[in-house]
Amino acid sequence: MPLVILLYALFASLFSLAKATLDYSEPFFLIGSRMFFAGCLMFVFQLIRSPKSLKIGKDKIHLILLLGFLNIYLTNIAEIHGLKQMISAKACLIYSLSPFLSALLSFALFSETLTKRQWTGLGIGFIGITPCFAGCLIHNQGSFINSAELVLLVAVISSVCGWIILKKLVWEGKEEERCSPITANAYSMIIGGALALLHSYS
User: Fold this and answer.
1) What's the predicted TM-score (pTM) here?
2) What is the DSSP annotation of 34-94?
3) CA–CA separation, 63 vs 91, rounded Å?
4) Which sign does the torsion angle of CA 117, 118, 122, 128 carry?
5) pLDDT, tens only, 67-83
6) Is the Cβ–Cβ distance between 178 and 171 less than 8 Å?
7) I need a labelling partner for 150 at 20 to 30 A (CA). Which of 47, 74, 107, 177 fits?
8) 84/26 Cα distance (integer angstroms)
9) Is the predicted pLDDT of residue 137 greater than 70, yes or no?
């Protein structure tokens, strides 16, 4: 339990840190350089540790490209744009919708089912965040969602889609055909970071 609390505390702090860095750097360059550099470090680590794991099948390439675009580029670009216009606490609150969207998308796209205990947990979580969203509704003067919140919601959906793609890469298929989590993240971060840097340059 303490580790779970620590994990979510660190996750929440990322929004405050990301918002603070916007005062010192152009958003696209910040995202691109951070992701591209981190992806290269992971690639070198995997090259030293397990060079064979860097090979991916042709049937996985489109998933890697999609992962880089959705989970790295689009997620971070939309998140930064949303953060520029709202407090980090609200951004973290909107990101708390991830488990619900993940369950719905997995059910709709892959016919995955949840156990009664999982549905109960999601229900309790949804009831818990409802008052917070009711407060946002009052703050927005009757509008359910403003433009900044809508952009951040795009980031959440894109992130969830990325995690589903990562799951397909890492867990589905024969064991020898599966992609290492480090390899998948390294390639996707390099691709997504490069896209953000190109966007920054243009």
Assistant:
1) 0.77
2) HHHHHHHHHHHHHHHH-GGGG---HHHHHHHHHHIIIIIIIHHHHHHHHHTTS-HHHHHHH
3) 28
4) positive
5) 999 999 999 888 887 77
6) yes
7) 107
8) 12
9) no
